[in-house]
Amino acid sequence: MPEVPVELSIAFEDDAENELSSQLEEVDNRSGGWSSWSEWSPCSRSCDGGVSLQLRTCTSGTCRGEHVRYKICNMQNYSQTAIKVSKTTSQSKKYPTMNTSDENEFLKLKKEIEHLRNALELKEKEECDRIEHYEKEIQILKKDNDDKEKYIKELRRRSKDFEDEACEAEEGFVLETQKHRLTINELNREIRQMRDNTNLLQGINKENESKVKKLEEDIKELTEMRKSMLTSIEVLTKENDLYSDELKKIRNEFHKFKNEALEKQKEREKENNEHGKLTTNLGEEIIPLINTKKSFLKNGSTNMKIMILADQQGRNIDKIFKSKLKNCNTVSILKPGAHFESVVEHIDSLSGDFSENDFVIVVAGINDFKCNRIPNVEKITAKISLCKNTNIVMAAIINGAISADRDYPMLEGLIHIDIFPDAKK
Fold first, then answer.
1. N or C: which end of the chain has fewer CB atoms below 10 A?
2. Which residues form a coiled coil (predicted)?
């Protein structure tokens, strides 16, 4: 069976339709026919210069011919058609074949198409670059425009602020003008008053001139009196010198007597300490240390007991509680000049029989600071923790002797005296 030669036809749209219709008529004379044209295929490129296709096939059972249309995007309606028949039935009719001149024309057109495609790609690249350049310029212009709009808004805002400031300044000027007018009126009133006062002072000045004359006469008299008084002072000075010698003798005797009294007091305190007794600042004898527990703690009384352990700062506390409280047993153990540890040395044994209603008041520590010794807080805490059955009150360092009128409210707060109904201030 002879093969049917390939027929290929290429033409621009102006000629293509007529030439294609004549070719189709020849092809349609074969047995069978052509199918309908398919839809144009999508462009083979995303930009200009691509190719899209249309295809239809022969409907003959023994013929497998194809009819293809090519279309290049963005070219002047340029179309390319081709007909390819692979095998046909045994027919005596001969189909036209492509001669050499047509083949050369086809190759020439193919080269032109390739050239046009390259030119289109170059043009496409140039257009893309130009578009990108224009987009950049648009962005720059847009940014510049935004900056100018912001600047215009800022100018408008500043203009409004300036107008507001101008209005405020104008109102301020009006108020200042009103104040100045009031000030001027006030100054005019003061000027008138000062003139009246000047006239009054001139009258007073005339009166004072007469008084000055009289005072000058009195000064002369006083000058004479001063001279006589100076003479008397000289006489008294001589007599005072005589009395000064006698005063020195009296002072020397007083200091001597005072020193002797202090030495006797120290000897008496030393003697009392050696015998286990202490005294208050008034010289009153206090219960001996060795007998305190027996005479005070186990006296069988149901009254509240208050024990005061103190250095020289605790004087008069015993006396204050006795004068202010009823049904209360108090005892003071004073150690003048003692350190804190010495004051609380026997606190555990002294308060062994104390109850929850009793109090131990500790007023000491000032001597530790005077000799640059800080009390050992841990030792003190351990010592005081031995007294578990009663109330321990640590008083602050008190400068000076205890005064009933001044310091009792503080002592009252120390022992919470308000809980006892019998306590009276």
1. C
2. 99-279
Ordered by where they begin, the domains of the chain are 7-98 (no CATH), 277-419 (3.40.50)
3 state SS of 143: helix
- Write out the E strands in 134-266: none
This prediction's pTM: 0.30
Tokens of 415: 């022992």
The one-letter amino acid at 286: I
User: Which residue has 């081709």 as its token pair?
Assistant: 82
Closest CA to 391 of 367, 419, 425: 419
Cα–Cα distance, 411 to 415 (Å, whole number):
7
Contact 328/321 with Cβ under 8 angstroms? yes
360-415 pLDDT, tens digit each: 888 877 776 654 455 555 566 666 666 666 777 666 544 444 444 555 555 555 55
Question: Under a CB-based contact definition with an 8 Å cutoff, are residues 42 and 28 in contact?
Answer: no
What are the residue ranges of helices labelled H in 275-375? Answer: 292, 317-324, 340-343, 347-350, 366-370
**Residue 143: alpha-carbon gap to chain centroid:** 39
Amino acid letter, 423: A
Cα separation, 314 vs 304, in Å, equals 20
